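Dissemination and training. As part of the outreach component of the grant, students in the summer workshop were shown how a complex can be specified as a set of sequence lines and then modelled as a single object. The example used during the hands-on session is reproduced here so that future cohorts can follow it. Participants entered these lines:
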Amino acid sequence: MGPRHGTDMSESAFIAQLRAIATHPAARGLADDCAVLDVGGDTLVLTHDTLVEAVHFLSTDPPASVAWKLIAVNLSDLAAKGATPMGALVSYCLQGDPTWDAEFAAGLTHVLETFGVGLWGGDTVKQSPSVLGCRMFGATLIGKGGALVPSRSGAREGDELFVTGTVGDARIGLLHARQTPSSMSPFVEAYRRPQPQLAAGQALASSVTAMMDVSDGLLIDALRMAAASGVAAMIDLDSIPLSAIADGIGYGNDRIARINAATAGDDYQLLFTSALPLPPLPCPVTRIGQMVHGQGLRLHDRAGDVPLPASLGWEH
Amino acid sequence: MGPRHGTDMSESAFIAQLRAIATHPAARGLADDCAVLDVGGDTLVLTHDTLVEAVHFLSTDPPASVAWKLIAVNLSDLAAKGATPMGALVSYCLQGDPTWDAEFAAGLTHVLETFGVGLWGGDTVKQSPSVLGCRMFGATLIGKGGALVPSRSGAREGDELFVTGTVGDARIGLLHARQTPSSMSPFVEAYRRPQPQLAAGQALASSVTAMMDVSDGLLIDALRMAAASGVAAMIDLDSIPLSAIADGIGYGNDRIARINAATAGDDYQLLFTSALPLPPLPCPVTRIGQMVHGQGLRLHDRAGDVPLPASLGWEH
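and obtained this result:
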């Protein structure tokens, strides 16, 4: 419900119309990816993401990987809050194809077991013949927050900007999977089976001023964080971390490759700001820039200022 | 995820496959309509229902009433737990039609305000052109449970069986709305804008042995409660409460009319069992039968035993 899924006017208008009833503190003004609820001295973090065929996954993706992605993208939102996942409610529409349904259920079992998440409920619906073949799946994930639950709006002037892991592999994977659906390359795996950065999020939660996951593209998500925080983001393109395999096949090391990586979606890394020394982390982390006075996004590399690309990421 | 939406083999197989990972007490074995989570001394009740066009609502239903129904059917699940609603996460797919979207948002605002429910978040997604026109909406509702949170499996031999309000109006409304979508009759309103029995559920929660909402038909839901509880349900058809308006237009007063009312869905009344005197209730309540030794469902009326109809309700 937050701005994560784009700046399309119709969506903005839709959310603006609803903001008047989002006054409860748990809603965080609909400006975040999760609801944060204080209950009986504990903090619950709740999030819901829906995946739509041909928007969030490919029609040719295996059902088990669609189930993985459905849970993983929600876990990534919990990771950005430093939350520990507890349970899931899953909305599944039966496909009228027992094989597809069984493979999805097996994939759902696998991903929930992998991350220690309980299946608490949800809804299984049939489709009408009039919409048969519509693949749209939802999940609500419930997690437990720590003492501090970061938002995307807390970045301050002078904070350094970091990203975990590497970005851009999923973009290459999407291109591969479109061309060769049977491909099992590490890039295709990165696209189909993102790894939510739960341990990093938990380790970081009390050291960051703002945190969010990179789902729609590093640049667009950094711009959203800057806008929510009332500052500008200044990013050094040369510092954007590409994976060794992407570097190895010649996708890295030039301005266009790094812009491509930084404007693609589905990375599910954590983007965060901090003014403190970072705690020990279970994954690589890279300083990619700084928050500064002003608004918007500024790019540079070793050759100087870099004009903003026409698209900063996915808006869906 | 519970048995509420039918006994279709494919759905049963799907849920059976998932039951192995539903071991957390909050899941209640996927045999209930809500998850029930003890957290910090409080009890949270969580439920998710998805509405599908041409299955749960008509293509001609006004967008505002689709929004009403989306929230109301989830509130009805909370009502059956005696819970007080707190907040909602809503999954909405933009229709590519600003008027439809705006009317849905207005309807969502109205229903959430009517029941004092906060909008806490959710997800707004665009559709791909390949599935454009697919109307499938989800909502997760979060409520606070009382000291006792009834399940559907607690009915015992000898308990009396009750239903709140009246049943069957929504069935007539569905027939009317199919024929004349512009109709605004009370029957059509009953179909499009069900009234969750929240106050009754809260009043009843500590006096019942089992409780659930009547969403798919009084008979099928009574059979589900009996099966979950390991007893048989014996129902007196003559006692099934029809509304005065339904009686007034000649739908009542005969066996077929009462069977029609008791096998139609969308009533959203509360069905419950109790062996205690009932507390004061904010709505009419009718004793319709008793739980007895055995299994299954038995019907009778003043003329004697009544054979079970071929369909006991909706299975979707």
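Chain A is about 30% helix and 25% strand. Students were then asked to discuss how this feature might be tested experimentally.
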